[in-house]
Design goal:
By secondary structure, this protein is α+β, with helices and mostly antiparallel strands. It has two domains: 4-122, Archaeosine Trna-guanine Transglycosylase, Chain: A, domain 4, CATH 2.30.130.40; 133-206. The chain is built from six helices and eight strands, in the order E-E-H-E-E-E-E-E-E-H-H-H-H-H. It has helices spanning 34-43, 133-147, 153-158, 161-171, 176-184, 188-203, and strands at residues 10-15, 26-31, 50-54, 56-58, 64-66, 69-80, 86-102, 109-114. The strands form two sheets. A five-stranded mixed beta barrel has the order 1-3-6-7-8. Strands 4-5 form a two-stranded antiparallel ribbon. It is globular and about 50 Å long. 27% of the residues are buried.
Length: 213
């Protein structure tokens, strides 16, 4: 398990719209673009084996920018297909704030980052003392029906608070800016409250006036 002293000041960045990674959660990824294959080759040579997942967004000038906060994951599973693609799993370690992007010779993006302010990410599993599961699961069931989604309901009902809330935050089909709001929620309780707001919004038919900022 990584400690704060193990976190490097510079990490490679994988900007993938809608792909959310949270601390102590796992994100499977399929890597095939040459620049990210090169990134994986470089990451596997490091001791921390960290990749920063960040939501990109298009600026008014058409330039693709990066959100200021992302989450770093440690490469914990790796397999290569016969045609040279990689199937990997990132295990969420800690959120970070981007200080600046580094100009260099790598085909992928790299950033200087700060880990300050995210100490709870390296701590124990969080609990949500105010979590009332019965109305939440009822609302979630209606959301899944409307979205035509399927899941293992027995596994969801028995999951611990953090696993349940973070898994839903990562898997539910929300917009990238909403995924960012879930990522930036300081505590598990606030993430659950954000998740409930997004589900209620979707159940009421959406609309631009309800978009989280």
């Amino acid at each position: 398990m990584l400690q704060a002293s193990d976190l490097p000041p510079t990490i490679p960045i994988f900007p993938l719209p809608g792909a959310l990674l949270l601390p102590r959660s796992r994100l499977p990824l399929h890597i095939f673009e040459p620049r990210y294959l090169a990134m994986l080759d470089d990451v596997m040579k490091t001791s921390a084996r960290l990749i920063g997942m960040v939501q990109p967004y298009d600026g008014p000038d058409g330039t693709r920018h990066l959100q200021s906060i992302g989450c770093a994951g440690r490469l914990t599973a790796f397999s290569e297909t016969e045609d040279g693609r990689y199937m990997i799993t990132l295990s969420g370690v800690s959120r970070f704030r981007i200080r600046k992007e580094i100009e260099g010779f790598t085909p992928y993006r790299r950033c200087d980052v700060s880990w300050d302010g995210f100490g709870r990410d390296l701590g124990a599993v969080e609990t949500d003392g105010d979590f009332d599961r019965r109305p939440f699961m009822s609302q979630l069931c209606r959301f899944f029906e409307e979205q035509d989604l399927s899941t293992d309901w027995d596994a969801l009902k028995s999951a611990e608070d953090e696993l349940l809330i973070n898994s839903l935050a990562m898997l539910c089909p929300f917009e990238p800016e909403d995924k960012q709001a879930l990522l930036e929620a300081p505590t598990l309780t606030e993430r659950r409250e954000t998740l409930v707001t997004l589900i209620e919004y979707a159940l009421h038919g959406g609309g631009n006036e309800g978009r989280l900022q």
